[in-house]
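Sanity check

After download, print the first record. It should look like this:
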Amino acid sequence: MISPSSPLEWLISALAFIVAIGVLVAVHEFGHYWVARRLGIKVLRFSIGFGKPLWQHVGGKDKVEYAIAAIPLGGYVKLLDEREGDVPAADVPRAFNRQPVWKRIAVLLAGPLFNLIFAVFLYWILFTAGVPALRPIIGEVTPDSIASRAGLRYEDQIIAVAGKPTDTLEAATLGILEDLTADGTIEMRVRGVDGGERDLALHAGDRSRELTQPEALFPGLGFDIWQPKVPAKVAKVMDDSAALRAGVKAGDEIVKVGDRKIADFSDLVAQVKPRPGESVVLEVRRDGELLSLPITIGESTAGGRRSGMIGVVPVNEPIETGRTAQDLFTLQKYGALAAVGQAATKTWDTSVFTLRIVGRIVTGNVSLKAISGPISIAETTGFAARQGWRIFLSTLALISISLGVLNLLPIPILDGGQIVYQLAELVKGRPVSERAQALGQTIGIAMLILMMSLAFYNDIARHLQ
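Expected structure tokens:
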């Protein structure tokens, strides 16, 4: 069970967010900078962050100004451009606006492209080191749910979704989301405990949009993911937790929450998670004696959603089920050369998935609540940082892909919108008028403000749920 939100957790989240955004913005802007320099375009400034500079340095023959600024939510590369002021006659040939269209497009593409290349690099590190991944094995199936009506059973393993193999839980989840948002029906192939394979169709109908909301997918379909059951016996009580304040000790076995008997640790989580802030009585077994401990359930906001927690870690003593670790996990590990292809494929598939989801948000097939903002990103990166370097690098790769793909959208203020202007100039034979560009910038800024406002609203709403 996740420990309580604490000042230390918030500090880790903030630092992880700053590091992640700083690295990804640096990669993005370095792409613009590097390609511009290679193509002979003069760079005036390279800034990570906005606002008041915390550090500045002027260097090189061109006297480029390098800066790290106070607001770590972006960055920019300023190129020499006659549209932004007087340019010395000797530097006119190096001005951005004087370059052929292909050079300008190359500079604009470089930022998003470097983000995607960086994701390939991160996945290469992960695949060469080896990434343990959960297999998509079905846990409890809710009676009379979408899943049960389709014939999904306990301990079925999802081996394909929409005809694509799903060796890992991540692959199955992405496949389910993509197939769900396409037409409201999920076509999957499963393997039962008897080894037999079956084709199933889960019909969500008009509930498909609702199921794309955060943490709604599996509960809405009516199943969870199988995991080893462990007893509700406490191995460790977290510092500054509800359990510690209630007097719970290592070695205690929690047998009841209120009047509900607890079968195992997952049952304990299921009873506590929906009850943040509620006062109940825990019945625990300690040295053969039953004790009643009043407790006010604490809360966690990990993942952007308010949920109950008491702050205990279970013993690592799985209840015998007949399944081994090999049944539950697969190791994604490749040689250095093979890992390049796997990393590139992973980046491509994730990029295409991201684009499709963005398109389906626009068409209304995916809930607007799926859009997350800086608060959720900070919490996600903070959580990932606490889980170890593999999870952190994987999260960094996903955010890098999102940054690359979203910057290619044809919104005027983004790289994609600027590329549209260059392509329009190529077709027309002359630059887009300043009036049209100014109007586009205004529309682009309004769209970004709207998107950021929605993202912040979603972040805050998840905390208030």
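If your output differs, re-run the checksum step. Summary of this record's structure: The mean pLDDT is 85.
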